[in-house]
Amino acid sequence: MSSSVPYDPYVPPEQNHDVPESQSKAAALKAEIDDTVGIMRDNINKVAERGERLTSIEDKADNLAVSAQGFKRGANRVRKQMWWKDLKMRMCLVLVIIILLVVIIVPIVVHFS
């Protein structure tokens, strides 16, 4: 035993020496708890940031879906316009062929009759 601690027959000698050790254990435990609290705060902040990023991505996905619908409508409109334009061109081509046939065949038929 050290001479700085008075002898007490009712207190076991280990407890006299444990007072500073228990304080150091408490300090170590408090430090560990503080570290754990810090890690948990970091994790909570990361989860909040992740939620913000997910919200941002969700907004972008919604905007993209709206843009896709607009593009689809525009593409259908252009497809129909091109179909009509193609139909008009074919009708004009058929009309020109019929006129050419009439111009060629009518004089031949009139000439032989």
Automatic annotation (TrEMBL):
Q: Does the keyword Membrane apply?
A: yes
Molecular function terms from GO: SNAP receptor activity
Q: Which InterPro entries does this chain map to?
A: Synaptobrevin-like (IPR001388), Synaptobrevin/VAMP (IPR016444), V_SNARE_CC (IPR042855)
Please name one Pfam family that this protein belongs to.
Synaptobrevin
Q: Which CDD domains match?
A: R-SNARE_Snc1
What domain of life? Eukaryota
| V-SNARE coiled-coil homology domain location | 25-85
What is the topology of this protein in the membrane according to its UniProt annotation?
Answer: Single-pass type IV membrane protein
Compartment list: Endomembrane system
> From its record, what is one biological process in GO terms?
vesicle fusion
- Kindly state which keywords UniProt assigns to this record, in alphabetical order: Coiled coil, Lipoprotein, Membrane, Palmitate, Transmembrane, Transmembrane helix
- State where it is primarily located: membrane
Q: What SUPFAM superfamilies does the record point to?
A: SNARE fusion complex
Q: What cellular-component terms does GO give this entry? A: endosome; plasma membrane; SNARE complex; trans-Golgi network; transport vesicle membrane
State which residue ranges cross the membrane.
89-110
The ranges of region (Disordered) come to 1-25
Task: Tell me, in a sentence or two, what this protein's role is.
Answer: SNC1 and SNC2 are vesicle-targeting proteins essential for normal secretory traffic between the Golgi and the plasma membrane. They may also be involved in vesicle fusion.
- State the family it belongs to: Belongs to the synaptobrevin family.
What this protein is called in its record is: V-SNARE coiled-coil homology domain-containing protein
* Organism ancestry: Eukaryota, Fungi, Dikarya, Ascomycota, Saccharomycotina
Q: Corresponding gene?
A: NDAI0A08660
